[in-house]
Amino acid sequence: MSKSSKIRVLALGLIQNSDRIFVSQGYDTSKQQTFYRALGGGIDFGESSLDALKREFQEEIQAELTNIDYLGCLENIFVYENNIQHELIQLYRCDFVDLKLYELEELKFMEKKRKKKALWVPIEQFKSGELILFPEQFLQYF
C-alpha cells in the first residue's frame, strides 16, 4: 500500500431534499466497492473554499448554488485504490438555484477524464449501512 504525500483540501456541498441527499457515485476497484460522496472538489491556491465550492458545481454539473452555510472542517484519512489518502474538507450545506435539479433521477458528468454520475439517494440507505457514504462523518449532519 502506498501513501500519497499530499493532503488534499476540498470544498464539498451537502444538498438535501426532504429525506434524500445529492451525491456522486464512485467505485474502488481494489475493494470492489461502490461508495457515494458529496459533490465539490479541490480548492486552488489563493481561492476561498466558498469560491471553490461554487466553481466546482459550475464546472461539474453547470449548477448554481444558493442558501450556502458553512458547516465546518472535517479530516478524512482513508484508503482508495490501495493508496492512503488524506483530505481536509471544508463542508457546506447548500441548495440548487435551478429547481429542476431536484427532479432528476441521475445526472452524468465528467470529472477530469472520468465519467461520473450524481443522483438523489435516501439518507436512510446510508444510516442503515446499506450504502456507503464517505466520509462517514457526513451522517452527523442529518
Write up this protein.
It is built from two helices and nine strands. The protein has 142 residues and is mainly beta. Strands 1, 2, 3, 4, 5, 6, 7, 8 and 9 form a nine-stranded mixed beta sheet that branches. It is globular, with a radius of gyration of 15 Å. The N and C termini lie far apart (33 Å).
The whole-number mean of residue pLDDT values reads 95
The outline comes out as globular
Derived from helix and strand composition plus strand pairing, the structural class reads mainly beta
Please state roughly what percent of the residues sit in beta strands, choosing from under 5%, 5-15%, 15-25%, 25-35%, 35-45% or over 45%.
Answer: over 45%
Secondary-structure map:
Layout: E1 2-3, E2 8-14, E3 16-17, E4 20-28, E5 33-42, H1 49-61, E6 65-80, E7 83-96, E8 106-111, E9 114-122, H2 123-127
Parallel strand pairs: 1-7, 2-7
Antiparallel strand pairs: 2-5, 3-4, 4-5, 4-9, 6-7, 8-9
